Amino acid sequence: MTHSHTDHQSLPWLDAATLRQARYDGAELIDARPVERFATGHIPGALSLALRGHFGALLITLITPETPVVFVLDEDQDRDELARHCHDHGLQQLHGVLAGGMRAWHATGLPITTLPMLGVADLGNQHVLDVRSQAEWQDGHLPHAAHVPLEELAEVAVTEQVTTLMCNHGQRSMTAASLLARRRGTTEGLSVLRDSAHDWSGHTGCPLQHGTASPE
User: Fold this and answer.
1) CA–CA dist 19, 21 (Å, integer)
2) Could you tell me if residue 8 is inside a domain?
3) Helix, strand, or coil (residue 3)
4) Rounded to whole angstroms, how far apart are CA atoms 192 and 89?
5) Is residue 22 part of a domain?
6) How confident is the model at residue 182 (pLDDT cuts 50, 70, 90)?
7) pTM (predicted TM-score)
8) 28, 75, 118, 145: least CB-packed within 10 angstroms?
């Protein structure tokens, strides 16, 4: 049985079986590793949210303060930093971190899935969903992209045609892709663009569009 952790001490380590049981009991699973690591292998159903400056502010848009949470980190990431981000935004039900990270999970033989990252040279004709803010979208976006800000994605029905998520460098779009993967029950057919709209324009020689219109 896991217990909430409500002070600033290090979060407890959880073995794979305990973390798995916590998920069955209703805990949210947040993978806070860099998105490149999430892309190459993660626990099915995990939400990607890389541990960085706006971690707590973004996490509170995805879950309620009362939601129990378990985490995956790389072994060189700081549990205390993770706890501080969460506590600073009123998140108290922090049940622990997977001991040994994905290496330990893999060693148990439990399932792992991937979610590939693409560069602009690989983009082709994929249906792109831009999850940046409205201001970023208006400042310049791919002509064929649709737009739903990340903070609104959980409330919006997204067409099954969407295959590639983008933001500026793949951080928010990996969160969005993991949300869609959970909704669809699979990561198959989904990818994340690691490059920005300006990178796409520079590579293709095509101008960005400006303004608010989003294609149907």
Assistant:
1) 5
2) no
3) coil
4) 28
5) yes
6) very high
7) 0.91
8) 75
CA 105 to CA 55: how far, in whole Å? Answer: 24
Tokens, residue 41: 């292998």
The conformational region for residue 132 under phi > 0 = left, psi -120 to 50 = alpha, else beta, is: beta
Within-domain flag for 6: no
**Rg of the Cα trace of the chain?**
18
Where residue 39 sits, what CATH number does that domain have? Answer: 3.40.250.10
Q: What is the pLDDT of residues 4-25, one digit of tens each?
A: 444 445 799 999 999 999 999 9
Amino acid (1-letter code) at residue 142? L
How many Cβ atoms sit within 10 Å of the Cβ of residue 100? 16
Phi, psi dihedral angles at 95 (to 5 degrees): -90, -15
Q: How many domains does the chain have?
A: 2
Dihedrals phi, psi of 134, to nearest 5 degrees: -60, -40
Residues forming beta bridges with residue 105, ordered by sequence position: none
Write out the residue range of the structural domain in which residue 191 sits: 117-204
In the structure encoding, which two tokens stand for residue 132, read together? 């940046």
Contacts for 153 with CB less than 8 Å, ≥ 6 apart: 131, 176, 179, 180
For residues 216 and 212, what is the distance between their CA atoms, to the nearest angstrom? 13
For residues 202-209, give the mean pLDDT: 96
Residue 36 and residue 94 in one domain:
yes
Is 161 within the bounds of a domain? yes
- Which of 75, 107, 139 is where one domain is finished? 107
